[in-house]
Design a protein that fits this description.
single chain, about 270 residues, alpha+beta, Protein Transport Mog1p, Chain A, 8 strands, about 25% helix
């Protein structure tokens, strides 16, 4: 016949015949302790925990971590406020217009204008728009047209502050990209970076002989205006001359100073 399972220690042993099962309880009451007896099933567990102090230490760590997590959540620790966009907005319109980029467009002596459709993207973290305005000028009947490209990019950071990346970009020497329409890649063209004042929180004007680029950060808004130029031959004047004194890429250093007031006009247009 299968008997009762044996319990560890004396507390699990069967009571002696004729013994009073409630003797311990009456003894506690008579002694004035008033403590209720521990259930028999808990006594072996408590005895095992007493011999394992690391269990109590682990429990203390878990409880302490939970308390700190609750406290930090309640105080907002670790959360950063959204950057200030200063009223700038990106809607369905095209920022690359003649009025939005004055007085730079005035100084280019335009004969014809062409816009590319803007690329606009909206998300909970970032609003983005980019576009281009092409200005043809200098068509003096010789068959050559000076074509300038004004590229605009606007990023509105709604969650994270872009200041660290933007400020660092003003100290980086970049490589020269291939300019559309050019027959060669520019190499070893020195660049000069300055920081015009009075534009947002920080401005980086990167100027080289054939490319001018102005970036501005104002709160969570980042603006970029880039100017490049090429000389285009008009096929209506026949075959392009095999040799000509006019270089394919336009020297734009004389327009570098005009990017600053043009950027002010653009920023004002996108904040109205």
């Amino acid at each position: 016949m299968i008997g009762e399972p044996e319990m560890e220690g004396d507390e699990g042993a069967p009571a002696a015949p004729g013994a009073d099962p409630h003797a311990d309880l009456r003894a506690d009451v008579l002694s004035g302790s008033g403590r209720p007896p521990r259930p028999a099933r808990l006594r072996p567990l408590l005895l095992r925990l007493r011999d394992r102090p690391w269990v109590w230490a682990a429990c203390a760590v878990v409880v302490t971590s939970a308390v700190w997590a609750g406290a930090l959540t309640g105080t907002g620790y670790g959360r950063t406020s959204a950057p200030d966009l200063h009223g700038y907005h990106v809607d369905s319109g095209n920022p690359c217009t003649y009025p939005n980029l004055r007085p730079l467009t005035d100084h280019l002596d335009p004969r014809a204008l062409a816009q590319t459709p803007p690329t606009i993207a909206h998300s909970t973290a970032l609003d983005h728009v980019e576009c281009e305005l092409t200005v043809d000028s200098g068509n003096d009947g010789s068959g050559w047209t000076s074509r300038y490209t004004l590229a605009v990019t606007v990023d509105l950071h709604k969650k994270t502050d872009p200041s660290t990346e933007f400020d660092a970009s003003g100290e980086v020497v970049g490589q020269h990209p291939h300019i559309p329409g050019a027959a060669f890649v520019l190499v070893d063209v020195p660049e000069r970076t300055t920081h015009p004042r009075g534009l947002g929180d920080r401005a980086n004007l990167v100027s080289s002989q054939f490319r001018q680029s102005l970036g501005v950060r104002h709160g969570g808004a980042v603006f970029t205006l880039t100017l490049t130029g090429t000389n285009e031959w008009d096929p209506a004047h026949g075959a392009e001359p095999e040799s000509d004194a006019r270089p394919p890429v336009i020297d734009t250093t004389g327009q570098a100073a005009n990017l600053v007031p043009a950027m002010r006009t653009l920023m004002a247009a996108l904040s109205s």
